[in-house]
Every structure is written in structure tokens, then in C-alpha cells.
Design a protein that fits this description.
heterotrimer; A alpha+beta; B mainly beta; C alpha+beta; A: alpha+beta; seven-stranded mixed beta sheet; 27% strand; B: mainly beta; four-stranded antiparallel beta sheet
Chain lengths: 1007, 90, 179
């Protein structure tokens, strides 16, 4: 094929302007025109081999003019913008565009990897299920050989290559709501949009390509006295100007989800050479439509014949569009091969534009005189009742060989006639594009007259219009569009008065009225290699092979042959494949069934789906004192969504040195730690006490006002769920704290019980985690520190006893102080409104200066509580009960509470359950969390008897320690075991000890 | 999937948190039968068809609703309020 | 009431005044008082009456059945309401420090909001003077529509910086100013 640019004039090159554009393909510079696609520009420059096929590396050229393109896949851009497998037919040309072919070495014109064609039959359908299996020889030598082959084949397989360089573009999202979504802006879509918009309803119109109009852009018909192209442009302008209408071009509706939710991708800057940095590259639209009109048209399909994948063979209507829209002749001598009348229109329109059409080959013996006369107009030789037997030429088309063809029996005659041509324009009929409704589960039905699948009954609120619904031709498109709009309006409760609704009052059309129905011919079987799915290199023989091997279901056909599984989802091959399968199984096509299309309709950039979440995946939660920690040089890290200080490293300190220093400082004097992240829930109401009593395992009904109590919360199955401290602020008012990670879970847990289980209880629940900033002041000097700055209340042991609460003032900040200890030292938790958090911290640091107060982070906080033996997240792992953690004393036997019944299960009383202990390193090695406790050696450890949970270096004990869960641990203090961690190559000798390692009597915190 | 909160109106399902089978009703507080609690926690019918399930409108008003949904067709048949204000929201 | 310490917003350094397009205008503020009131099913009418009688209200926002979030232009609303609404009538909870108000106005305000929040911002679906609760990913939001093109968003204090980063980025495509 050697395409070239036609003489541009009215009606030839309708999309083009005069502006010349330079671009490059495979390093070579070319010129195109504004309005070209990459495909049309390459054709105009005579480039015919664009790509190499997936499996066999056969040379391929442009096949279509739209997003259904199976062959012309290229890689665009470079660096972080590299994007493989782009259809050249969809790329809008712009100045400086850089594209290259893919899946070939060294070049697309000379590809050494095509050598695998010689292996031919070994690579037929399903070859990977039948090969690469070796006998289990010693050392699996045979299997390893096959593995090696597989590596090489994998390297040669695939289409384009992506990049690992970050994408420099950003993407956006938009949430939209409308009354009627119209998908497609061809004749049917425009008609529906006009009718729906006139009612005042909120309308969104989505059009896949850059210009609206669909087939109206290239048809020679006149509407209301003007060229259809101009008429459709006026329509869209009018619609866009209406307040209640949003028109989105370059926007493909990709997915149709439940509840009439649609996903569309708008290409905002892909067609521009100079991209504004504030514009997103693409915008993902989540559209929730009360009703929808699907007017997505129909896709032409080819007939399958020997040699049908050569560069130069394309769909007839696409060839026509190249001539009309892009002023490009697809070849110097074009032969049309068809089974229906539209192939003849393609011949006529091409010839009118200046393309030489040498022949029209029609499988039908009888051609309508009005159609036949078209052929005479083109001066093409007409061959009716004929079909292509083979194609001449290796890397392109140099001619076709035709023979007589009996459309009833499918037999080719023995005669042969050669026709010289360099392009074959094929039309095998039209398939309605109902991909979206199929995604939604709509079962298509076969229409024998149209020889096409129609969308079937709607399962959601959508109405089909135009070719998508089998309504071919302009008159029927306009009428069905109107009707669909009226139905959509009725869905949303808008009825148009009968007079105004007179459907059929469409525009005046002056043009062709032809019959779209094709002869039922899908394949010309002359014995040569013929392709059904071009993108996945699936041949007609592959389909028959699958059938012979027993894969008779359409779902098996698809997966075994991979027909329809490439990036084009079989848009130009599904129906033909089904027809061949039907013929092989001697069934009518209507009985074969169809597979379900999956979203998206065309490939979507991952960035478009990620939208604004690219770069920082989750929002950061910051405490009120965040900036202070950063200024102090704290090692900040992500603790779930929260940013927390790990340690406050002094210059030159490691993390371990820092937390050891901080821990020592707290136990010796005083330290401050930010505890604002704790979950905090406001619990109020006349029944609040009773409610708390039901959700905690220990008693809460009698907690006095002004006191706090540590509480355990169980799941209904008896396992520990969360722990925290609840303060009674008033008779009917409580402040519950939870673990940081558990806050959301606990809130939902409480709401479930309040709403679903005990809705008669008067309990109000409100999250106040963000309301309060919290600082724990801990250490033997903590009381002195507070005495120095707290006013309006007493912080003595008498004024603020252990677990007591007081209200006071620090500076001008009202504070609540509770005497609680997580560290085991004398300690207080000071809370104030979050917006005063920074001021509170400064006031406490200032008051603590003379006591050498240090800020301490999460590592030191953990170390203190581990030494003390307090449990936290790693021990509350969802598989431990209070009895397992030495907290039996916190399980009330006097009441029923959430979890109390199933906690009685026999298994929880077993003595060999994993029980809380501590282990101390005996050899100076660090113990890692998640190590298994074993009796054996590194090489032969023996079975796991438990695992380590929370680890640290203990300044108090002078060795590495860990809390741990050990089978029957309570009775094994003093035993020597090993903490083994094969993943980290560690094996540490340890001694089992009680988890109460520091101040077991609790004198420090109660003093 | 869109669910209708009786207070806030129709919203995307991402605003809600799934809380399980609504036909699983907790035994009353003084029922100490392990079998009854076992059935409440673990026994489920997993129907292919209509399913009654509990959702919490966690990113909205935090009202609980019982949704009747067809697990095969995904049709949401009804969304009924649950909780102290259920009568007022109906 | 004694003079209280000055409150510091997490956005005090991020939301610096910036001149730019008036198609989107952003600003932030803290609340003098922000109080949630929850009535019981049998006391809704009485509680509503009590709320109506308090003065100085900026926005009274219904946020659930029998529940309101009240933004007041004076401090001390929590104590005032707690005196009037005892446990038998309902529950009063202070949230003054739990939220930061991010305001957005201008002809493209709804465009920016719709790009990150899945709500129908058409005036018929979200009338002026009404409140909707929703979210931007993991950031919960209480949204009050002040005017056709003007909204007050009550954002969780711990998440407001992340929220501000997003709304600035979303507004950048249009062009915006900060007051």
C-alpha cells in the first residue's frame, strides 16, 4: 500500500486545516496537517508498515480510522510520559509529536523476531498449555530447559514497553450528576440531546472524538439544506450554549457501573504540544445519571480470508473516512471487497475524492441496480458472486486473486482472476457497539436479518438509539434518538405534551437510503492462513482447533484462543469468531451465546484512575504539636495515618541511642510525650453508665465522678478488641479514650450496639479525638513540674489521687488533668483544646526546664510501657483474651457484657494457650518482633512455641527484652529458649521471665 | 453502588461502612447460652438473591440503615433506617 | 469569662493572603464556639426551641436526626447550652477545637468542590442555607452552603492541612486567591 495526500478541497480533507505540522516516527521526520491523526499522516506520507503483530511479528498497517484499531499500535513520547500500545488512529497530531513502533527489533521494517513464524504450528492457540512441560528428571533438568525457552519467548512477547520513570503529569477527577447522559454525538445522540435538553433537564453529552457528529462528519448527505458536517457542528454549538447542557468532547465513556453510574475519561491536553502546567493531562468523570441514552453507533467488521492481515488491507468505511475526513488516499489502486451495500458507498465516496478504485468484489451474485450503478460511476470493474482467494505481496499488498463464490454453500470456484491493487477495503457488515450495556450484564440477541447482535433488554435505566440499537441510516437514527430521549425523560418523571413530542419531526435529510443488511458471509475458507483477531494473532484455524479440542463454549473459545482478549476486546473480531465457531459446531450463531464485555471500553491510563491521589496516597493526620516536633528535629514517621515523632535525635545519635537516653531521662526526672493521637469519644446520657458497663469487661457502673478507670473491650467472640481509659466527668458525661489505631473501629462498634442492639438506651456518642491535644508528663519529677505551672487546682497526691481527674489552668489555657500512667512512672495526662496544644507544650517545657525535662517519642514511650509490662496493639492482636494477657482480674463475673458469653468457651481455659510473658536476651543480641520461640538450634529449631510481640533495649534491665506470647507461659518463668527469626537470620538465646519487669508493685505511679 | 440514607439522601457506597448480615440479631443481655451466641456470630445463609444487610453512613450522618440488596443483580431494593430515630426517619 | 489563650490554626502559615483570580476565593478561620447538640427522640422539639433562643449564631447546621452543629460568634456557647439542656433533654459536646473552617467562594467554587467531593452541588439538590455531610477521601466534611457560590467547610483539625493542599491544587487549574 502506498497512501498519499489527495488534492484537498471542499469535501476532501474535512478535518484538516492548512497548518503544516512536523512530527517524527521511528526517528524519521515527516510532515502532516493540523487535523490529521498520526495514522492519517503516516498514510499520507506513504508509510505502510506501522507495527509488528503480537505473536508472529507479522508486518501490520492501519486497519481502521477509530478506537477499534487492532493493528497500528505505537509508543508515544519518552521519559516519564512514555506510553505504549496507543492506537495511531486516535492520536491527534501536534507539532513535535514523537512516536515509535514497538514489538520489533531492529526495526518495524526488518524484524528479526518474525523468525518465530517458522515455528508456526507450535504456536497455535493454547500452545502454552501443551508445551513447556518436562519430565521430572534428576534436578528437573528437562523442566529447566523449558523454563529457559519460556524466558526467551516472554521477552519476545508482548506489545509495547512501559516506563518506570514517574509520570510528570497530573490527573484530575470530576463528580457529575445529571438527569440524562447521552453517550455519542452522532445523528442519534444529537437528536436525543436536543429533545432532552429542550425540556430543561440537566444533560451531559459525551463524545469520544475531538469533533461531534459521528458519521455526520463524513457523510455526503445534506441535512436541512446544509452539509451534514456543518449541520452537526451547529447543533453542538447550540447545545453547548445551553445552561442545562454540558458537552464533553474527547471524552470516552469507558464503564457502565451499577445504579447508572458511568466512568468517562476526558483527554484534556493530550492533543496539545504546549501543555499548561496547571491543567491536568486527563480528567476522570464519575457521572451519576438518572437515565441514559446510549447512541454509540456500530463498528464495521471485516470478512476473513487468506492473507487478510497484510498492510494495505483495511475496513472499507475507514478507507472512505481517510479520503473524506483526512484527504488521504489509502492506496494508489484500491479494491473493495464486500458483502453489503455500504462497501459500494465507500467505493463511490473514495472515487469522488480522487482515489482510484479499480474493482468492487461482492460475494453476492445479485446486486441492486441502483447499487450496481455506483460501481459504474467509479469506473471500477464489478465482480459479483466473487470472493478473495488469496492476497499477493509479502510486506504489503500487490494484488488479490479472486474466484467465483457461492454464498449459499461457501464454495470457491476453481477459476482465478488476478487484480492488481495496493489496498483492499473490506466490508463484512456492521456490529452495533453495545459494549457499555453488555458491561452491565445486558444479554445481546442475534438479529438474523441484520446479521448482527443487538443489545437486548435494559437491566438499568438506559435507552438505545441509532445503529447501536440496530436503527441504521440517518432517518432511523434521528427518529430513534428522539424516542430514546422521550423515554429517558419519562424515566425521570418529565412527560412532554403529545403535540410537542411528535417524533418523526426530525430534520430534512437529502441523502442515501440504503439497506445495511449483509449477506451472511463471515469467512472465505480457501485454506490459507487467515486472521480473525488481528491484535492477538488468532487465526480461523485456531478457532476450529479449539472446537476440535472440545472447547465448545463461547467462554472457553475466548479464553483458550485469547480471541477478544487484547486491548481492543475484539471490537472487529468477536462476531466473526463466533460465526466461525458456530459453523464448526453446526449451530446457528443465535445459539452460540456471547461473552460479557468488561470495562474499560478502551485502555485507560492508571493516572486517570488515581486522579488527585497520585503522589501522596493518603492524607496525613497531624497532631496540634506537629510543627514543634519538626522544629525539635524529631524523627517523624507514619503511624497509620498519623505523623508521630519516633525519637528526638541529638546530632550523631542513632534511633536506639536516642530512645535509651529519653527513657532513662523519664525514669530519672521528667519527660513530655504528645499523646494527642489517642482516640477520644464523648459518651453522654442518662444511660451512659449502663452502656459503658455493657461494653467493657470490667465494672463501670459505679465509677465515681472525677475518676478514670482503665477498661478492656472485648469482641462478641471473647477476644480482646481494644483498651483505653474512660473518665467520668459528670454524672451523665464520660470521656472514653481508645488506642490510636482503634479509634474508628471502637466508634463503629459502640454505634452498632447503640443503634442496632440496644436502641432504647439514651446514649449520645461523639468523636472528639481532634478536639483535645494531650501531653503525658511522666517521671518522678512530673508532679513538681505541674505544681510549677498549674493554677486553680491541686496536683498533690491528695488533691489528685491515682486515677483522679481535675480541671485547672496553665497560662491562659483551661486544662483537664488525669493522673494516669502508661509508663509505670508517676505520670499525668494533660489535655487542652487542640488549638492551644502548641501553647500548652511550650508552657510545660518551660516549667520543666529546671527539672531537665526531655521530650520523648514513640520509641521511648514503647520502651517504658514494655518494661512495665503494659499491653498494647501487638498483644491485642485479635487472638488473645484477657486471661491470655494476665488480665483476668479485669473480667467481671457479676455482669453480662459484650463478649462475656463466648469468653466462657472451654478452649479459652486451656493451659497451653499462648500466654503473656517477657523474654530477656542472654547473649547481648537484639530480639526482633515476630520471632518464634523455640527450643532447638538455628538449623533445627523445632516447632514454634510462641512469638515475640513488642521488643526494645531495656535501660532498667540492661539487656534487650521483649514481651511475648508463649504456650503455657505463666508456668514457664525461668526457662531458657531461643527467639528465632529465619527471615532475618537471627537466633537469640533468651530467658522467660514475668512481664512485670519494672516496679511490679506499682509504687512509682501510685506515690 | 448508590445507597439511600434516610437523612442525607442517595450517596455513593464509599460513604458507608458495611456492618454485616442484618438478620443476625444479638441475643438479649441476660441470655448466656453459648449456642445462641455462636449462631449469632458465625451462622450465615449467604443467599444468592435478596440479602438484608446493615450499613453505617460513616462519612455522613452515621445513621445505620438496613439495605435489602440482590446479591446476583446488585439491585438495591430498599434502605430502611435503624436506631433510636428509626420511626422519625421513615 | 476570663481571657483565654489565643488559638492557633494549623493553617496559620499555609493560608497566607494571595492575590489571583476571583473565580475561586479561599479562606480559613477557627470558630469562637462550635458545639454539637444531640437530642433524644422524645425531646427534639424542646431542644430545637432551646437552640433557637441562644443568640449570636453564625450557622446552625442539622447534621443528623435530632442533632445540630452550631457555629457561634462568641465563646462560651458550650457552657451556656449545657445549662439549658440537661441529660434528660440531650447531650452537649464541645467541638470548637476539633474543626477548622475552610471557606470557598466564587463562580467556580462548585467546580472545585465537585472535583473532590461526590455530592450534587446544583442549587436544586443542595439549597442555600442547608448542610450536607460527606467526605473527600478519608477527610470527613460538614458542608454549609452560605450562598449560591459560597460554602463553609468544617474540616477535622488533624486533617485540615492535607485538605488545604488538595483544595489549592484543585483550584490551581482555574486560578484562585486567598483572603
Amino acid at each position: 500500500m502506498s497512501g498519499f495526500r489527495l488534492n484537498l478541497r471542499d469535501g476532501v480533507g474535512a478535518n484538516l486545516s492548512d497548518n503544516a505540522i512536523s512530527f517524527s516516527f521511528d526517528g524519521k521526520n515527516y510532515r502532516g496537517l493540523e487535523g490529521d491523526t498520526l495514522a492519517s499522516a503516516l498514510l499520507a506520507n506513504g508509510v505502510s508498515i506501522i507495527a509488528r503483530s503480537f505473536k508472529y511479528h507479522r508486518p501490520r498497517g492501519v486497519f481502521t480510522a477509530g478506537s477499534e484499531e487492532p493493528n497500528a499500535l505505537i509508543t508515544l513520547h519518552s521519559g516519564g510520559r512514555t506510553e505504549p500500545n496507543i492506537r495511531a488512529t486516535e492520536v491527534e497530531l501536534y507539532e513535535g509529536l514523537v512516536a515509535r513502533s514497538q514489538n520489533r527489533w531492529p526495526s518495524v521494517n526488518f524484524d528479526l523476531m518474525a523468525v518465530n513464524q517458522l515455528a508456526g504450528k507450535a504456536f497455535s492457540a493454547g500452545f502454552y498449555y501443551k508445551t513447556f512441560m518436562g519430565p521430572a528428571l534428576q534436578g528437573h533438568k528437562a523442566t529447566r530447559f523449558w523454563w529457559l525457552c519460556e524466558q526467551l519467548i516472554r521477552r519476545a512477547a508482548g506489545l509495547g514497553r512501559g516506563t518506570t520513570i514517574p509520570d510528570p503529569d497530573h490527573y484530575a477527577r470530576m463528580n457529575a450528576f445529571c438527569d440524562v447522559l447521552v453517550v455519542g454525538s452522532g445523528a442519534a445522540g444529537l437528536s436525543a440531546a436536543r429533545r432532552a435538553a429542550a425540556s430543561g433537564a440537566r444533560i451531559i453529552v459525551c463524545e469520544e472524538s475531538a469533533r461531534a457528529g459521528g458519521a455526520l462528519v463524513s457523510t455526503p448527505d445534506f441535512i436541512d439544506g446544509e452539509p451534514a458536517r456543518d449541520w452537526s457542528a451547529d447543533q453542538i454549538s447550540e447545545l453547548s450554549a445551553m445552561d442545562n447542557v454540558c458537552v464533553l468532547t474527547r471524552t470516552t465513556v469507558q464503564s457502565y457501573f451499577d445504579d447508572n453510574t458511568f466512568f468517562a475519561v476526558e483527554r484534556v491536553t493530550d492533543h496539545l504540544s504546549h501543555k499548561d502546567k496547571t491543567s491536568p493531562r486527563q480528567r476522570a468523570w464519575n457521572i451519576r445519571a438518572r437515565s441514559a441514552v446510549i447512541a454509540t453507533g456500530a463498528l464495521e467488521r471485516p470478512m476473513v480470508f487468506a492473507g487478510n492481515d497484510r498492510p494495505g488491507i483495511m475496513l472499507a468505511d475507514s478507507a472512505r473516512r481517510y479520503a473524506i475526513e483526512f484527504g488521504t488516499a489509502p492506496g494508489r489502486a484500491v479494491a473493495v471487497f464486500t458483502n453489503n451495500d455500504t462497501g459500494w458507498l465507500a467505493a463511490r465516496d473514495m472515487a469522488k475524492a480522487g482515489v482510484i478504485v479499480t474493482a468492487i468484489v461482492d460475494v453476492r451474485a445479485d446486486i441492486e441496480p441502483s447499487i450496481r450503478s455506483i460501481g459504474e460511476e467509479c469506473r471500477a470493474t464489478i465482480h459479483s458472486g466473487s470472493a478473495i482467494k488469496s492476497v499477493k505481496g509479502m510486506r504489503g499488498v500487490s494484488g488479490i486473486v479472486i474466484a467465483n463464490y457461492n454464498e449459499l454453500t461457501g464454495e470457491l470456484g476453481d477459476d482465478s482472476k488476478s487484480i492488481a491493487c495496493d489496498c483492499v477495503a473490506v466490508s463484512g457488515g456492521w456490529s452495533p457497539a453495545f459494549h457499555l450495556t453488555s458491561q452491565q450484564g445486558g444479554k445481546p440477541t442475534w438479529d438474523a436479518e441484520l446479521q448482527a447482535f443487538l443489545p437486548g433488554e435494559p437491566l438499568q435505566k438506559w435507552h438505545g438509539a441509532g445503529a447501536m440499537a440496530g436503527e441504521f441510516g440517518l432517518t432511523r437514527a434521528f427518529r430513534s434518538g428522539e424516542e430514546a430521549a422521550l423515554k429517558a425523560l419519562a424515566d425521570i418523571g418529565v412527560t412532554i405534551p403529545k403535540q410537542a413530542a411528535k417524533a418523526g419531526s426530525g430534520p430534512d435529510i437529502d441523502g442515501d437510503e440504503i439497506d445495511y443488511a449483509p449477506a451472511p458471509v463471515f469467512e472465505i475458507n480457501s485454506g490459507g492462513k487467515s486472521f480473525v483477531d488481528l491484535q492477538h494473532d488468532v487465526t480461523a484455524e485456531d478457532v476450529r482447533l479449539a472446537h476440535r479440542e472440545g472447547f465448545v463454549s463461547v467462554e472457553h473459545l475466548k479464553r483458550y484462543t485469547t480471541l477478544g482478549m487484547a486491548t481492543d476486546q475484539g471490537k472487529t473480531s468477536n462476531v466473526t469468531g463466533l460465526a466461525i465457531m458456530a459453523a464448526a459446531s453446526n449451530k446457528p450463531i443465535a445459539d452460540t451465546g456471547t461473552t460479557r464485555f468488561r470495562p474499560p471500553y478502551t485502555p485507560v491510563a492508571m493516572g486517570a484512575i488515581a486522579g488527585e491521589k497520585y503522589g501522596h496516597l493518603a492524607a496525613e493526620r497531624l497532631t496540634p504539636m506537629h510543627d514543634i516536633h519538626v522544629d525539635l528535629g524529631a524523627n517523624m514517621y507514619a503511624n497509620g495515618p498519623w505523623m508521630r515523632p519516633e525519637t528526638y535525635n541529638l546530632p550523631g545519635e542513632t534511633v536506639e541511642q536516642a530512645y535509651i537516653r529519653e527513657t532513662r531521662a523519664v525514669r530519672a526526672g521528667a519527660g513530655l510525650v504528645d499523646v494527642s493521637t489517642l482516640g477520644k469519644i464523648d459518651v453522654q446520657g442518662p444511660d451512659a453508665a449502663e452502656f459503658l458497663n455493657r461494653v467493657y469487661s470490667n465494672g463501670f457502673a459505679k465509677l465515681p465522678v472525677g475518676k478514670a478507670r482503665y477498661g478492656l473491650m472485648l469482641r462478641e467472640d471473647g477476644f480482646l478488641f481494644d483498651d483505653g481509659t474512660t473518665w467520668r466527668l459528670d454524672e451523665h458525661r464520660y470521656l472514653m479514650t481508645t488506642t490510636t489505631a482503634g479509634a474508628g473501629r471502637v466508634m463503629e462498634h459502640l454505634e452498632y450496639y447503640r443503634d442496632f442492639v440496644w436502641p432504647d438506651l439514651k446514649v449520645a456518642l461523639a468523636s472528639v479525638s481532634d478536639e483535645w491535644a494531650g501531653v503525658a508528663v511522666a517521671g518522678p519529677k512530673s508532679r513538681d513540674l505541674l505544681k510549677a505551672c498549674v493554677k486553680k487546682c491541686e496536683v498533690t497526691d491528695k488533691g489528685l489521687p491515682f486515677m483522679g481527674i481535675v480541671d485547672g489552668v496553665i497560662g491562659d489555657i483551661p486544662v483537664k488533668i488525669a493522673r494516669l500512667s502508661f509508663s509505670g512512672e508517676l505520670a499525668f495526662e494533660v489535655y487542652c483544646g487542640a488549638h492551644w496544644g502548641s501553647a500548652l507544650w511550650h508552657a510545660l517545657m518551660s516549667a520543666g526546664e529546671k527539672f531537665n525535662v526531655v521530650p520523648y517519642g514513640l520509641e521511648a514511650l514503647s520502651t517504658l510501657r514494655i518494661e512495665k509490662g503494659h499491653v498494647a496493639g501487638p498483644e491485642l492482636n485479635g487472638r488473645t483474651t484477657p486471661h491470655d494477657l494476665g488480665l483476668s482480674g479485669m473480667v467481671s463475673s457479676k455482669k453480662n457484657f459484650v463478649g462475656s458469653v463466648l469468653l466462657q468457651r472451654e478452649t479459652f481455659g486451656k493451659e497451653d494457650r499462648l500466654q503473656l510473658v517477657a523474654v530477656k536476651s542472654l547473649d547481648g543480641q537484639r530480639i526482633r518482633g515476630g520471632s518464634h520461640l523455640v527450643a532447638g538450634s538455628k538449623v533445627q529449631p523445632g516447632g514454634s512455641q510462641g512469638h515475640t510481640t513488642s521488643t526494645c533495649f531495656s535501660p532498667e534491665l540492661g539487656s534487650y527484652i521483649s514481651l511475648a506470647l508463649l504456650e503455657g507461659g505463666y508456668k514457664r518463668h525461668g526457662e531458657k529458649l531461643f527467639a528465632t527469626n529465619p527471615v532475618r537470620n537471627a537466633h537469640v538465646a533468651v530467658e522467660v521471665i514475668s512481664h512485670h519487669m519494672v516496679d511490679p508493685e506499682g509504687g512509682r505511679m501510685r506515690g | 453502588m448508590r445507597l439511600t440514607c434516610p437523612y442525607c439522601g442517595p450517596r455513593d457506597h464509599q460513604e458507608f461502612t458495611y456492618r454485616g448480615d442484618a438478620s443476625a440479631v444479638r441475643p438479649v443481655l441476660d441470655n448466656t447460652s453459648i449456642d445462641d451466641h455462636n449462631a449469632y456470630i458465625y451462622d450465615r445463609t449467604n443467599p444468592d438473591g435478596l440479602h438484608r444487610e446493615l450499613w453505617n453512613h460513616t462519612s455522613g450522618c452515621r445513621t445505620h440503615i438496613i439495605v435489602e440488596r440482590n446479591t446476583i443483580t446488585h439491585d438495591v431494593v430498599s434502605c430502611e433506617p435503624v436506631g433510636p430515630f428509626a420511626e422519625q426517619l421513615k | 469569662m476570663a481571657d483565654l489563650a489565643e488559638k492557633l490554626s494549623p493553617l496559620h502559615e499555609l493560608a497566607m493572603p494571595r492575590s489571583g483570580s476571583d473565580k475561586v476565593i479561599l479562606s480559613e478561620r477557627l470558630c469562637d464556639s462550635l458545639v454539637q447538640v444531640q437530642a433524644w427522640p422524645d425531646s427534639v422539639g424542646e431542644v430545637e426551641k432551646q437552640i433557637k433562643q441562644t443568640r449570636g449564631k453564625r450557622n446552625v447546621m442539622p447534621t443528623g436526626p435530632g442533632r445540630w452543629l452550631i457555629d457561634d460568634q462568641s465563646e462560651g456557647l458550650e457552657e451556656k447550652l449545657r445549662k439549658k439542656i440537661g441529660a434528660e433533654l440531650g447531650a452537649v459536646t464541645g467541638l470548637t477545637h476539633a474543626r477548622v473552617v475552610v471557606s470557598i467562594s466564587g463562580e467556580k467554587a462548585t467546580w472545585v468542590l465537585a472535583s473532590g467531593i461526590a455530592l450534587d452541588f446544583d442549587v436544586t439538590a443542595f439549597p442555600i442555607g442547608t448542610t450536607q455531610m460527606s467526605h473527600h477521601h478519608e477527610i470527613g466534611l460538614t458542608i454549609y452552603r452560605v450562598g449560591e457560590n459560597s460554602f463553609d467547610l468544617y474540616v477535622f483539625t488533624s486533617l485540615v492541612r492535607s485538605f488545604w493542599h488538595w483544595i489549592e491544587k484543585a483550584s490551581a487549574e482555574i486560578g484562585y486567591s486567598v483572603i
